[in-house]
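Pyrrolidone-carboxylate peptidase
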Amino acid sequence: MRQVLVTGFEPFDGERVNPSWEVVKKLNDLQLSGVNIVVRQLPCVFGKAIEALNSAIDEVDPLMVLCVGQAGGRVEISVERVAINVIDARIPDNAGQQPVDEVIVAEGPAAYFSLLPIKAVVSGLREAGIPAMVSQTAGTYVCNHVMYGLLHRLAQGNCKAVKGGFIHIPYLPEQAARHPGAASMSVNTVVKALELTIAIALHTEQDLAIAEGATH
């Protein structure tokens, strides 16, 4: 059976859990839309995260890769449009590294656009009653690092996967309880969102031509 690789991250920045992994691990071995989902946890460490992702791609040989990360403070499922070739870490990673203004791939392009039908995904999630948006920035931390690394790998054409991208998710409720005023989303809702995302991405060849831009 064809396979889809879905990744989440280990906890970071003092959090006891990372919602991306708490959700993603529930998808392991799920058969959906004619594919089998395989999940892997990535370290929240510059360099090692991309190495782990590439090893997983080599092992699984997926037809699509979906990476998921935590974005505490965001209120919706954020489907990322673009990854940029820069690391500018506001906080250290889990290995204590805090690079500033460094490139991810030397001589790599300034940016890569997602290879997912991002607007179709957002539209489908909203139709299912799940708050979602197209995000214009994946930040400059390990999530952007992984998204750029993924899209750079797919651009080389040396693996089966031709679709790939990144989604940020809000805190879980138990995390938001420790961050007064922060938004949250339940595990069950995010699981449903990822299942829908995978199904839509697998079966959509032409993205929707609808406005999902930002004015600031």
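thats it. The chain has a mean pLDDT of 97. The radius of gyration is 16 Å. bye
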